[in-house]
Design goal:
Nucleotidyltransferase, domain 5, seven-stranded mixed sheet, single chain, disordered N terminus, alpha/beta
Length: 251
C-alpha cells in the first residue's frame, strides 16, 4: 500500500497534542509480516500526560521470525489470547484522533500499519507524521541517531530497556522528543498543570484494565492571575488548541 495518504514531516509540527508511537512486528516484510504490538503516548505541550494506548495483537497464521523475537521477545504463544488487528484498530484510531503522530524511523511503522489497514480494505489514517530519526540526523549530522544514542545524548536513563517494546519505546521516545525540541524549556502555569493532571487520569491500556478505585474529585478554582497566565501560554505556544474555545472564567 502506498504511503502517499500520510504526510511525512521531518520538522516538529505545532499543536497542543501529539501521540508518540511505536510498533513491534513479526518481521520486516511489509507485505507478509504483521503488527503484533501497538502503542502511543500522549504529550501536550512539554508534558507527558500519562494518557496512553497499548495493545498486543494476534498475527493469525504469521509466525514471529527468530530475528524479530530476539529483538522484542514476543512469541506466537504469548500472542495467542490477544485480538486480531480488525478488532482493535478502531480503538487505536479513537485514541490518536486527528493529532500528529511521531515515530522513530516512521516509514517502517507507518508502512506496516498501512498494510494492516490495506488487508482490511479500509482507509489508512491521514494524520500528519513526524519522523524523529530524520529530525535527529538533521540536528546532529554525522552522529548516531538511534534511540539508545539519543538517550545518551540527552541524559535519559534507558537501562531498563533490555528488549524493544512498543509502549516502553514510546515512553522513552516521548522523553527524547521533548529534550530534542527543547520543549522542556516551556514553563507551565499552575492552571496548565491542572489541565494535564486531569488528562493523565485517562489512560487506555487494552491489556491491563484499570482496577483503580473511584476517587472523590477535588475541584480547585484558579486565581485571576493564573487564568491570565494560562491564556497567555495558549496564545504563545499552543496553536489551534481546542480548549481556547472554552475560556476559563474566574469564579
Amino acid at each position: 500500500m502506498s504511503m502517499s495518504a500520510t504526510l511525512m514531516s521531518s520538522t516538529p509540527l505545532q499543536g497542543a497534542r501529539k501521540i508518540i508511537g511505536d510498533s513491534e512486528t513479526t518481521g520486516l516484510e511489509k507485505k507478509e509480516d504483521r503488527v503484533i504490538e501497538l502503542a502511543g503516548v500522549e504529550i501536550i505541550g512539554n508534558v507527558i500526560t500519562g494518557n496512553f494506548y497499548h495493545q498486543y495483537i494476534n498475527p493469525g497464521r504469521r509466525k514471529v521470525h527468530d530475528d524479530a523475537f530476539k529483538v522484542h521477545g514476543i512469541s506466537n504463544e504469548f500472542l495467542a489470547p490477544y485480538p486480531t488487528f480488525d478488532l482493535i484498530y478502531q480503538d487505536y484510531l479513537a485514541f490518536i484522533g486527528k493529532s500528529p503522530v511521531v515515530f522513530h524511523n516512521a516509514p517502517f511503522d507507518i508502512g506496516m500499519i498501512a498494510e494492516e489497514f490495506a488487508r482490511l480494505k479500509i482507509p489508512m489514517f491521514t494524520n500528519e507524521v513526524e519522523d524523529t530519526l530524520v529530525q535527529a540526523r538533521k540536528l546532529f549530522p554525522g552522529s548516531p541517531a538511534n534511540l539508545d544514542a539519543l538517550c545518551r545524548r540527552f541524559g535519559i536513563d534507558n537501562t531498563h530497556r533490555t528488549k524493544h517494546g512498543a509502549l516502553l519505546d514510546s515512553e522513552i521516545l516521548a522523553e527524547v522528543y521533548i529534550k530534542m525540541h527543547r520543549l522542556d524549556q516551556l514553563k507551565l502555569t499552575v492552571a496548565d498543570q491542572a489541565v494535564t493532571a486531569a488528562v493523565a487520569a485517562l489512560q487506555f491500556d487494552a491489556n491491563s484494565p484499570s482496577l483503580a478505585p473511584e476517587k472523590q474529585t477535588l475541584i480547585v478554582s484558579p486565581r485571576a492571575a493564573e487564568i491570565a497566565a494560562h491564556n497567555e501560554f495558549l496564545t504563545k505556544f499552543i496553536k489551534g488548541a481546542i480548549w481556547k474555545e472554552f475560556s476559563i472564567q474566574n469564579g
